[in-house]
Amino acid sequence: EKRIVILGIESSCDDTSAAVIRDGVILSNVIANQSVHERYGGVVPELASRAHQQNIIPVVHDALKQAGVSKDELSAIAFTRGPGLLGSLLVGTSFAKGFSTALHIPMIDVNHLQAHVLAHFIKESEEDDSQPDFPFLCLLVSGGNSQIILVKSYNNMEIIGQTIDDAAGEAFDKCAKVMGLGYPGGPVVDRLAKQGDPQKFVFSKPHVGGYDYSFSGLKTSFLYFLRDSLKTDSEFIEKNRADLCASLQKTIIDILMDKLYHAAKDLHIKEVAVAGGVSANSGLRDAFEKYAKKYHWKIHIPKFSYTTDNAAMVAITGYYKYLDNDFCSPDVAPYARVAI
Ligand code: KG4
Question: Is the pTM of this model over 0.80?
Fold first, then answer.
């Protein structure tokens, strides 16, 4: 019986990644991070696409090698078509076109956001049966997105709530930046928050309708609070760093969980997942565990390696699209913006 072997390529932002999945089981997931952006305090698109160009061939080579799969065994190539930085997406898209043409195998275009959700279906082994059942809710929280998604099937997802301004990751990063914690600050806030008191400071929470989010008010309230505090004590940030991080993190998590809880309650859904870069946050993971106990949720929290951008999630999405015979033509173009 023929096995389905998918090579996944991810190049939407600043991580170049390639992964191999065979019949839904992960064989390799190689990620090359780009350190070039650190000193700019954010991703520089022009530098990102150049680094992808340098990384892509070695990363694919390593992914095939680690998987123990030869290029002739590949059934199809799945690549991130968008959303993301156009120059970065072009590198992965062009590579997929060239490689699929050379190997005479089909190409599968993948929506990056759908891939974050479907990361929960990656099997670690043939026996792994921890995948969610449909329908479930997925909180997708990253540097660019904060959404509550109602996942009805592999290819049928509905955004029922989303941020009207900043994403949760942006709130972490922007507040971290004003505390002088570098970029991206989310992981640093997470680490420092462990030693701080989450009740010490209170920041404003948004009033938006439905299941939508807003984080720009929190950012402003945090900024003004620091500015006022620094007037009377120039070392305020240094002295209170851990408490500031803990209180900020608690506020962001409370905002996220409150809407998610209401969505789950209203829709009578007990199966809840989290995805995206911010799902690496330990406070958010703890909150999921707490809600699971209290409200009898069955929760799905991704492995750390599947939280940030990775090609494994692209390959698993490609696998399900392959089963649906859902391929794209070689004249496909990437897109910077798109809904799920
Ligand atoms: O999904 P992702 O890798 O890509 C983007 O969409 O940009 O998410 C990156 C975001 C950044 O904002 C980063 O600060 C945040 O995820 N992040 C975290 C943690 N790890 C990554 N935020 C809070 N706590 C963490 N442990």
Answer: yes
